Amino acid sequence: MSAAPRRSDRTSRSDRTSRSDNSRRSDSTRAAILAAARERFATDGYERATIRAIAADASIDPSMVMRYYGSKEKLFATAADFDLHLPDLSQVPREQIATTLVGHFLKVWEGDETLQALLRAGATNESAAQRMREIFGTQLGPTVASIVADPGEAGTRAGLLATQMLGFALCRYVLRLPPVVSLRQEEAVAWLAPTVQRYLTSDTASS
Amino acid sequence: MSAAPRRSDRTSRSDRTSRSDNSRRSDSTRAAILAAARERFATDGYERATIRAIAADASIDPSMVMRYYGSKEKLFATAADFDLHLPDLSQVPREQIATTLVGHFLKVWEGDETLQALLRAGATNESAAQRMREIFGTQLGPTVASIVADPGEAGTRAGLLATQMLGFALCRYVLRLPPVVSLRQEEAVAWLAPTVQRYLTSDTASS
Prior knowledge:
about 210 residues, Arc Repressor Mutant, subunit A, 2 domains, 11 helices, about 75% helix, TetR_C_16 (chains A, B), Homeodomain-like_sf (chains A, B), AcrR family transcriptional regulator (chains A, B)
């Protein structure tokens, strides 16, 4: 019990230089962890990437990873740096926008298992859900805003688009409902594109 | 190391009656746990219901709950006994089927937080995902089969319906995308019903 005050005394004697050294060390440790995490998650996938392996890659103790990031899910949500690479829709003929978008989304989901991992993590972890809201707000939102007639409706239309595309991803890759898993990619595009087209361009909800 | 054979010897001496007593005790313990879990999850909701409280309600040790069910998520998936109370669509005029279904789903989702918990659990836990596939197969599947023109297409059409309705639930209740959260219920029905109508009744994917 007497050790705590002594440690605290010692800390208060530490000079400005060593404090800023500590802070720099902490920043560079975090950066090393994030860099290692990004590479591990990309290479091994979310499930197989372990805190232990990430710590080893960053040459630090696993307990430090937990101290800085709390859990694998939170580390993942912080490291996840997804660029959906959405196409420039202003260059796409109006009647092909939905087909282009749906096809693009399916390619992204099939090609990047970390996006599936983010969806799974987002369902139970608030940091990951927050990351999905950011992706929605900074990438999907502006893309939809660039093509809708009334910018005031861009948020709602982007939200509806998200309900359909994330719902498809949920049923196909996460819950694995058999008839959704067995749809061929071109069938999926043929079914989903008219839905997305309506969400983006119909005059009113029920038209 | 020598204890194992001795225990095994002792077990082999136990008579038929005590074995079946054990098995009956185990069955009744499981039943007591499930009954307590159903009540706790319904009363307290998934997040607040604890293994400790469920064990206390069933008058057994929490370690026994974990021994029988492994985790709170698995216990929940086993206890979850959802009846979607889908309406008899054969009695609904054809052009009102989608509006009726979408309105019904929204009421179910808004009224039962355990269904939201099942969706969250299903994203990360295979037992819960399996439970969602069962609900899909035994409740949504037959309902859709009762109204589609070609029974061979019922699975695909029910799957597409699921992608939209589960995707809406995911974005509104779990990920909480702002524009989806802020949709009024009647706006949601107006946007989603034409999608569902098309998935259930359109002649071909792209019509």
